[in-house]
Specification:
With about 210 residues, this protein is α+β, with helices and mostly antiparallel strands. About 35% of the residues lie in helices and about 25% in strands.
């Protein structure tokens, strides 16, 4: 699997960086001096709309390479932010050899497929479906966990879900309230418990 390939040691030397939750790695306009690979945690790439809204466009999980604009010497176009505590490798693009480049290309190819699936998630169905899909997706990342009762928990705020579903916090809050009223989820401060994962899957699928 690709994750196993990407866990291999790079030929190029790298520097390990530690990020705290909500810490940014780079911003739009920054010079691109490094290509990165996620070691642990969850990173997201966001864009700012002309109206000033933040939109999540890409999630990066352990094994994923990103910051590929450094291969062309371009400035950063997006913001990279850690959604959890994370560790990343920083790699000097000038030291990347053919083997490393092949690994990076494979990673970006897999991410492109995920990105296409994510675009579908944003455009298909109403907001209730999109919120359900996003919660299911996040439950499989470092933001997901299982509590002592065996319930799936997702560490996500309404704002994060809004940014991940191209919506507003107010609209998402209403959907979350409806799902809670229906007994499908329970929500607290930056935490959503999936009480009925099967029902949530059905909503995500438009059933």
């Amino acid at each position: 699997m690709l994750k196993d390939i990407n866990s291999e040691t790079l030929s190029a030397p790298s520097q390990r960086l530690r990020l705290g939750r909500k810490q940014s790695l780079f911003h739009p306009g920054d010079p691109s001096n490094s290509v990165f690979r996620v070691q642990t945690g969850l990173i997201r790439i966001t864009k700012m709309t002309p109206e000033g809204r933040t939109l999540t466009v890409r999630h990066l999980e352990p094994g994923d390479f990103f910051g590929e604009e450094a291969l062309n010497g371009e400035t950063r176009l997006d913001l990279a932010e850690a959604l959890t505590s994370a560790q990343v490798e920083a790699i000097n693009p000038a030291l990347i050899n053919g083997r490393d480049l092949f690994m990076i290309t494979q990673s970006l190819s897999t991410q492109m497929k995920r990105l296409m699936d994510y675009e579908y998630h944003l455009q298909a169905g109403d907001l209730r479906q999109r919120v359900a899909r996003y919660l299911v997706q996040l439950s499989t990342t470092a933001l997901g966990n299982v509590n002592e009762m065996g319930q799936i928990m997702v560490s996500a705020s309404h704002e994060l879900i809004a940014e991940g579903t191209a919506s507003t916090r107010e609209s998402v809050s209403k959907i979350i309230s409806d799902l809670r009223f229906d007994g499908i989820i329970e929500s607290g401060y930056r935490c959503i418990i999936l009480l009925n994962k099967d029902e949530l899957d059905m909503i995500a699928d438009g059933i």
